[in-house]
Design goal:
alpha/beta, UDP N-Acetylglucosamine Acyltransferase, domain 1, 2 domains, 11-stranded mixed sheet, 9-stranded parallel sheet, 20% helix, 27% strand
């Protein structure tokens, strides 16, 4: 089925529009946009610059995709926004295209839910099945790994990373990396416990959940140090793949600056 485009929309003829796309009234689609099959722009959606939208995305009013990075060093090169498939992008979301400091791409994976008025800044990398609740703000160069969830009005400092299956509570101030599998809260955030709800929902084994809980206890409560924690977990037969992933993440974080592993790039 061919695309359905409202007479009240402005779509540049050079834009690449897939099959069964719907573009509602007052949308503006620029010449370098690519829209995959089955994607729907409800109304008043703006696609600026080089923006690639995958298949079966649903984009709500007042969304702006591909605006220039809010970075004073940007010099106008053709950086991009690349968005995967089956994403829900609600009212007022803004996703800026990349600066020239990394690979030139701000990327969003697939099956994500970006709620109203959330913001994804330049050079961010958002994985798959991520939830950004209302008003969540991601600074530049932030990485959000698969299955992470950020609650309302959480703010993430530039270059920080939120690990997979992590949960950040509402109104949190994320200055440091949030390790995978953790529930983080506070101003600034601290890992309070493991994210049991997400782990159970995603079929983590009871053994993995118990081992991750023990790893959290050793690192953040007993504070025995990573090497000692690793030896204790190995002695208890709890050095499972997910636990190894957690320990590696924390070690890399500690090697970075200001609690953010990726700050090493800026120091170099």
């Amino acid at each position: 089925m061919s695309a359905t485009i409202s007479k009240l929309a402005e779509v540049d003829p050079r834009a690449e529009i897939g099959e069964d796309v719907e573009i509602g009234p007052f949308c503006v689609v620029g010449p370098h946009a690519k829209i995959g099959d089955g994607t729907k722009l409800i109304s008043q959606v703006t696609l600026m610059g080089h923006v690639e939208l995958g298949r079966h995305n649903r984009v709500y009013p007042a969304v702006i995709l591909g605006g220039e990075p809010q970075d004073i060093s940007y010099r106008g090169t053709d950086t991009r926004v690349v968005i995967g498939d089956n994403n829900m992008i609600r009212e007022g979301v803004t996703i800026n295209r990349a600066s020239e400091k990394e690979d030139g791409v701000t990327s969003i994976g697939s099956n994500n839910f970006l709620m109203a008025n959330s913001h994804v800044a330049h050079d961010c990398k958002v994985g798959n099945r991520v939830v950004l609740a209302n008003g969540t703000l991601l600074g530049g160069h932030v990485h959000i790994d698969d299955h992470a969830s950020l609650s309302g009005n959480a703010c993430v400092h530039h270059y920080a990373t939120v690990g997979s299956y992590a949960f950040v509570s509402g109104l949190s101030r994320v200055l440091h990396d949030v390790p995978p599998f953790m529930l983080a809260d506070g101003m600034p955030t601290r890992p309070r416990c493991i994210n049991v709800v997400a782990l159970k929902r995603n079929d983590f084994s009871p053994e993995s959940i118990k081992a991750l809980a023990e790893a959290h206890r050793l690192i953040y409560r007993a504070k025995v140090g990573l090497d000692h924690a690793r030896e204790i977990l190995r002695g208890n037969d709890q050095l499972l793949p997910h636990v190894n992933h957690l320990l590696t993440f924390v070690q890399t974080q500690q090697e970075g600056r200001h609690g953010r592993a990726r700050e090493r790039r800026r120091a170099a």
